[in-house]
UniProtKB/TrEMBL annotation:
<dbReference type="InterPro" id="IPR029016">
    <property type="entry name" value="GAF-like_dom_sf"/>
</dbReference>
<dbReference type="Pfam" id="PF09339">
    <property type="entry name" value="HTH_IclR"/>
</dbReference>
<keyword id="KW-0804">Transcription</keyword>
<keyword id="KW-0238">DNA-binding</keyword>
<dbReference type="Pfam" id="PF01614">
    <property type="entry name" value="IclR_C"/>
</dbReference>
<protein>
    <submittedName>
        <fullName>IclR family transcriptional regulator</fullName>
    </submittedName>
</protein>
<dbReference type="InterPro" id="IPR036388">
    <property type="entry name" value="WH-like_DNA-bd_sf"/>
</dbReference>
<dbReference type="InterPro" id="IPR036390">
    <property type="entry name" value="WH_DNA-bd_sf"/>
</dbReference>
<dbReference type="InterPro" id="IPR011991">
    <property type="entry name" value="ArsR-like_HTH"/>
</dbReference>
<keyword id="KW-0805">Transcription regulation</keyword>
<feature type="domain" description="IclR-ED">
    <location>
        <begin position="84"/>
        <end position="266"/>
    </location>
</feature>
<feature type="domain" description="HTH iclR-type">
    <location>
        <begin position="21"/>
        <end position="83"/>
    </location>
</feature>
<dbReference type="InterPro" id="IPR005471">
    <property type="entry name" value="Tscrpt_reg_IclR_N"/>
</dbReference>
<dbReference type="InterPro" id="IPR050707">
    <property type="entry name" value="HTH_MetabolicPath_Reg"/>
</dbReference>
<dbReference type="InterPro" id="IPR014757">
    <property type="entry name" value="Tscrpt_reg_IclR_C"/>
</dbReference>
Length: 266
């Protein structure tokens, strides 16, 4: 259950005589409220608990978001701690906790597939890897940790699109899609057909769509409430990790995603 600040305990109230900068006080209160919430918290709830109006809350949260201290969840639009918040404290961040829980399953999958295994999370209208295990091969993928990648040409990105509400998917397709390679799908109608297939199969492929020399497969990780929070991926050089090979290990990748999802419920 989320921790709450009681309504009769104004979090903005300071001890008498303490110097204060009101905007800084309010921003810190919002940051604390976000950190105490186990799930992305809506702006209306934040404004109410911080005893400030919604417009003020939005301006302060926008500033915190600009500095990476908070970020909006792509699915719920609620606010959660950003990557920069974890860099300011020795306390284990939510992403670090996720990585720790997933690590044993990631290592097992890496040993089985002998390819790069990545754990990624949504990042606004993109995805970012928070953990990566590389294979023993001399030819392997670059380090993608902390690199924000697009949705339409990555396997985990397409999984996110497949899980978004219809209105948000339509909004995403309002903008032109960048053609990263000759295989990148930029036709919204064709990509929507592929999203239907992804929903049916429970996994997504990227075959030379982000980089012509790389292929990948991803499966979704859900929290206890059934909310998509992360992705497990296996990727490798196209000459070795072919589309057939990716499909061959699909059920293993999906199984690993389920195991991680279950571990997060404990």
């Amino acid at each position: 259950m989320d921790k709450r600040i009681d309504s009769d305990e104004n979090p903005l109230k300071l001890k008498q005589g303490e110097p204060t900068v009101q905007a800084v006080d309010r921003a810190i209160v919002l940051l604390k409220l976000v950190s105490m919430s186990e799930h992305p918290i809506p702006i209306n709830d934040l404004a109410k608990q911080a005893h400030i109006n919604r417009t003020t809350a939005w301006r302060l949260l926008s500033t915190l978001e600009h500095h990476g201290l908070v970020e909006r969840d792509a699915l719920t639009k609620g606010y959660r701690l950003g990557l920069a918040a974890g860099q300011l404290t020795s306390v284990t961040s939510s992403n670090e906790l996720l990585s720790l829980r997933a690590r044993p399953m990631m290592e097992k999958l890496a040993e089985t597939t002998q390819e790069t295994v990545m754990l990624s999370v949504p990042k606004n209208f993109g995805v970012v890897a928070i953990s990566q295990i590389d294979p023993p091969h001399s030819v392997r993928l670059i380090d993608y940790v902390d690199v924000v990648l697009p949705l339409h040409c990555t396997s985990n990105g397409k999984l996110l699109l497949a899980n978004l509400p219809k209105a948000e998917v339509e909004h995403f397709f309002d903008r032109p899609l960048e053609k990263r390679t000759t295989r990148t799908m930029t036709d919204p109608l064709e990509l929507k057909k592929q999203l239907n297939t992804i929903r049916k199969n429970g996994f997504a492929l990227s075959i030379g769509e982000l980089d012509e020399s790389e292929n990948g497969i991803s499966a979704p990780i859900y929290d206890a409430n059934g909310v998509l929070i992360a992705f497990i991926s296996v990727s490798g050089p196209a000459f070795r990790f072919t589309e057939d090979r990716a499909i061959q290990i699909a059920q293993n990748v999906v199984k690993t995603a389920v195991e991680i999802s279950n571990a997060l419920k404990q």
